[in-house]
Design brief:
Blueprint (H helix, E strand, L loop, with lengths): L1 H21 L5 H4 L3 H12 L8 H25 L1 H6 L19 H12 L15 H18 L6 H22 L8 H6 L1 H12 L8 H18 L13 H22 L3 H12 L1 H23 L17 H39 L1
């Protein structure tokens, strides 16, 4: 249970970093350096060698866990598109910070849903953060395929071959990004993430040899800050901005290690560890819903300062000075929605089961 809680805390820190990055907080440039890499690392750590037996079965399982929930949210957002326009969550205005859109006809709705189902664009702005699930799905499938073939090779040559393939894919991914070649399903990001996934896997394999020390965590945080100060920019995987091969790895690994140490420190507080782990368990839903929850804060801003209602459509936020409110809404809002839905579903299921016998005799 402690192990499960620990990794839920790490996931909670990761999703908190995502929301902080989108809320316009002062730490945005720094959390952008590693926040998505942290999820690649976690996926690599939680990967079991038994998955390597059949990559197709593994891929099918990942589809069920990632693709199915993603399309459920994607289709729901598409169906709500016109309602969002009426509520000023979207706008037809062409202004800075607003993603102009139009009312959906039947064909527009069909194209949006089709794009979501096939993972070929068409994702609604409110679900835009879920783009990350595609390279995660592809990256983990690539990693499983590598493990499938290299585990059949006599050790230690199998591990050497696996490391070599990971390195080749990383170099190829960096080259594709630099050449601005378009790859479907963010395949270039999946390739660039391969060393992070592999290091997560090795960390799990040799976890007893990996020191988790506060001073190393502090040094890792300094490394992340230094990379930003030296390069003058930050990693943004959604924009194919990785700064450079060495800087990307240094910033990613520095941020990851810092969070591993921070999670260990958080475990010392029972209350804080419970709260962050609770968010970590619901990280998928926070990823999917936090942009929509931001709109509650934007509405409050518009009402407080008597701004035009179409300002609510400013994406993802209106004013970075309200970043604390955006962050709180972005984390607590989805958690509350998911828990409320689960509560209602449980009550409804219990009600139906209670009513069924009487209906049978009626």
């Amino acid at each position: 249970m402690d192990k499960d809680q620990y990794w839920n805390i790490v996931k909670g820190l990761g999703i908190l970093a995502v929301v902080l990055g989108h809320s316009g907080s002062p730490v945005t440039p720094y959390v952008y350096m590693y926040h998505l890499a942290l999820f690649f690392f976690i996926s690599g750590y939680l990967y079991k060698e038994s998955y390597s037996t059949d990559p197709f079965v593994y891929f099918a399982g990942r589809l069920r866990r990632l693709w199915l929930p993603m399309i459920q949210y994607g289709v729901a957002f598409a169906l709500l598109h016109n309602l969002f326009l009426r509520m000023h969550i979207y706008s037809e205005q062409t202004l800075p910070s607003i993603l102009p859109t139009k009312y959906f006809g039947k064909l527009d709705l069909f194209c949006s849903i089709k794009g979501t189902l096939l993972m070929q664009g068409g994702m609604e702005p409110m679900g835009g953060a879920m783009w990350f699930l595609l390279p995660l799905l592809l990256g983990m499938t690539l990693f499983c395929t590598i493990r499938h073939f290299t585990t059949r090779t006599v050790q230690p040559y199998g591990e050497i071959m696996a490391a070599s393939l990971v390195l080749v894919l990383y170099i190829l991914g960096v080259a594709i990004i630099r050449k601005r070649i378009n790859i479907d399903y963010h395949g270039d990001i999946a390739m660039v993430a391969m060393p992070i996934i592999y290091l997560g896997f090795l960390t799990a394999k040799y976890r007893n040899r990996v020191p988790i020390k506060w001073y190393l965590g502090l040094a890792s945080l300094v490394a992340v800050i230094a990379v930003y100060k030296i390069t003058g920019t930050y990693v943004s995987l959604s924009e194919k901005q990785i700064i450079g091969p060495k800087w990307f790895l240094l910033a990613s690994l520095g941020g990851i290690y810092f969070n591993l140490v921070l999670a260990r420190v958080i475990q010392m507080s029972k209350t804080l560890s419970y709260l962050i782990a609770y968010a970590g368990e619901r990280s998928f839903h926070i990823m999917a819903l936090h942009f929509l929850m931001f709109k509650i804060v934007s509405l409050c801003y518009v009402l407080a300062y008597s701004k035009p209602l179409f300002w609510i459509a400013k994406f993802p936020i209106i004013d970075s000075r309200w970043w604390i409110a955006y962050t709180i809404a972005g984390v607590l809002g989805p958690v509350a929605c998911v828990d409320l839905f689960a509560f209602v579903k449980t009550k409804w299921t219990g009600f139906r089961e209670t009513e069924r016998p009487s209906a049978a005799f009626g």
